[in-house]
Specification:
Helix 15 links the parallel strand 12 and strand 13. The longest helix is centred in the N-terminal third of the chain and has 39 residues. It is built from 20 helices and 14 strands. The chain is an alpha/beta fold and 532 residues long. The strands form two sheets. The protein has a seven-stranded parallel sheet with strand order 3-2-1-4-5-6-7. A seven-stranded parallel sheet has the order 10-11-9-8-12-13-14, with helices on both faces. It is 47% helix and 12% strand. This is Alpha-1,3/1,6-mannosyltransferase ALG2. Its EC number is 2.4.1.132, 2.4.1.257.
């Protein structure tokens, strides 16, 4: 184990150094070309502005990945970008949010806790957003100091948009809202009448406040259809644009001096790695991956290596495929903790040995005979190694709003097995870049796992990998999303709207201020007991 762990450590360190070198080189080139473009192109064609992002909790997840990619993409196009958030933990966020790539500022976080006695999360989230907006636009000069040509990018929570459009420091600035999915459809527990009554004002507020945005976009045609069915009046009045999330295609590109001996993959690759990347939430249906993997016979799990179709063994002498389950995990979130425990119990009940790693060192030291490995909140360098080492990526959520992970896998030449609903239907081409299967049919998922491990030749896997990489580069690159967003911001600047004219700005501000005052009062009474 000492020799193997040493090898893993070298792999990880070299991959990290390689990533940082490529990132530094890429930033230098991007700065040079951005400067050249600014000189060569007319100001009317390349208008520069300050884009202010408002995001509730800049942690690790699909929404946060989109926000970071959008911010970096717009920054590369010459805009100044500032990200305001109520929470950003350097230990639990994407690299760009902590390494200085983005200007991230935490505001509106000290007055209201994230929840009260573990409840009222939506109420507290709205109050924290109002606190953030008031902090930067009214209580300080921070927003004014960013300059006159400001535009806003808000997502997840629209409740603060009317207040934002009311305040003198921001009422003339165009506001763009990105709807990942209607929150009213994500809320659970509506079987109880009092929960339905509690959620009713927030459900109404969501649609009404979203209409205050100058432009609205969704993450897929699937989500646009859901929004149109949920809020038909909003869909009739507003043009719901589709802006696909993207990925940075440069992070998956090897430099010219990389050689075949570069340790950018894990030795587990030889025995067949089936990879799942998702947040530890029940709606992600990670249990499907475990059940499908358990359906493989011991002979099927042995698989074939990528060279010559011969069975391979891991460095420790144990042959067989391994299921790696990685993803966002926040110990503050009760569901993350509980669902991880449920998945461990499920693996054990199905006769699968399992282990959990919470640090890089722990991940590198997992014994070879473990069949299922849970990796909690892995850093980007290790995530990159996992993607490059995988034989197959399984993406289990049904009716996923979009799903960025399949794109990350396809960009690295990994076929994808995903649910035949939601966003993956728009990204994965069945039979060409991967497979789409009914999540209710576990045996169908097991059959695809067996096909990837045993029945497809290395050449066939490589063909699928090339098709997936080409599809991502042609349709879902970060440059394309940034260009789309830039065009939307230009359109908003040319034709501004003032929100629903029938309602007075003063009345709106008064109502929202009253709501904030109520939450602050409750928090001041209960806060010392629940929030140190």
């Amino acid at each position: 184990m000492d020799a193997e762990q040493g090898y893993f450590s070298v792999c990880y360190l070299r991959a990290t150094l390689s990533r940082d070198t490529r990132r530094l080189s890429s930033r230098t080139e991007q700065h040079h070309f951005a400067h050249a473009d600014a000189v060569e192109m007319a100001p009317a064609l390349r208008r520069k502005r300050t884009i202010v992002f408002l995001h509730p909790d800049l942690g690790i997840g699909g929404a946060e990945r989109l926000v970071v990619d959008a911010a970096v993409g717009l920054q590369k196009r010459g805009h100044r970008v500032v990200v305001f958030t109520s929470h950003c933990d350097p230990r639990h966020c994407f690299d760009e949010a902590r390494d200085g790539t983005l200007d991230v500022r935490v505001r509106g976080h000290w007055l209201v806790p994230p929840s009260l006695l573990g409840r009222f999360a939506i109420l507290c989230a709205i109050a924290r957003q109002l606190h953030l907006i008031l902090s930067i636009a009214l209580l300080t000069r921070e927003l004014r100091e960013l300059g006159p040509d400001v535009a806003f990018f808000a997502d997840q929570l629209s409740a603060g948009l009317p207040l934002l459009k009311t305040l003198p420091a921001a009422h003339c600035a165009p506001v763009f809202f990105y709807c990942h999915f209607p929150d009213l459809l994500l809320a659970t527990g509506r079987a109880r009448w009092w929960k339905r009554a509690y959620r009713l004002p927030f459900d109404c507020l969501e649609q009404w406040s979203m209409a205050w945005a100058d432009a609205i976009a969704v993450n897929s045609a699937f989500t646009r259809g859901v929004v149109a069915r949920t809020w038909p009046a909003l869909a009739r009045r507003r043009d719901l644009k589709v802006v696909y999330p993207c990925i940075d295609i440069t992070t998956a590109t090897k430099s010219d001096d990389d050689d075949d001996e570069s340790p950018d993959v894990l030795p587990w690759e030889e025995s067949g790695v089936i990879l799942s990347i998702n947040r530890f939430e029940r709606k992600k249906n990670i249990a499907l991956a475990i059940r499908a993997f358990a359906g493989l016979s011991p002979e099927q799990r042995r698989g074939r290596g990528r060279e010559g179709g011969q069975q391979k063994k891991t460095a420790g002498g144990v042959d067989g495929a391994r299921l790696l389950i990685a993803g966002g995990y926040d110990p503050r979130v009760g569901e993350n903790v509980a669902y991880h425990a449920e998945l461990c119990a499920l693996a054990g009940s199905l006769g699968l040995s399992h282990a959990t790693a919470t640090t890089v060192v722990g991940a590198l030291g997992v014994p070879d005979d473990v069949q299922v490995v849970f990796l909690l909140s892995v850093p980007n360098a290790l995530k990159e190694m996992l993607l490059r080492s995988a034989r197959l990526l399984v993406y289990t959520p049904a009716n996923e709003h979009f799903g960025i992970v399949p794109l990350e896998a396809m960009l690295r030449g990994v076929p994808v097995l995903a649910a035949d609903s939601g966003g993956p239907v728009e990204t994965v081409v069945d039979g060409r870049t991967g497979w789409l299967r009914d999540p209710a049919d576990v045996s169908a998922w097991t059959e695809v796992m067996d096909r990837a491990l045993n029945r497809l030749s290395p050449a066939e896997l490589a063909d699928m990998g090339r098709a997936g990489e080409s599809r991502v580069r042609d349709n879902f690159a970060d440059v394309q999303m940034a260009e789309r967003l830039d065009a939307i911001f230009d359109g908003m600047a040319a034709a501004k709207t003032d929100g629903p004219a029938a309602l007075s700005h003063a009345v709106v501000a008064l109502c929202l201020a009253a709501l904030a005052a109520l939450v602050v009062f409750v928090a001041s009474r209960l806060g010392p007991r629940i929030w140190p």
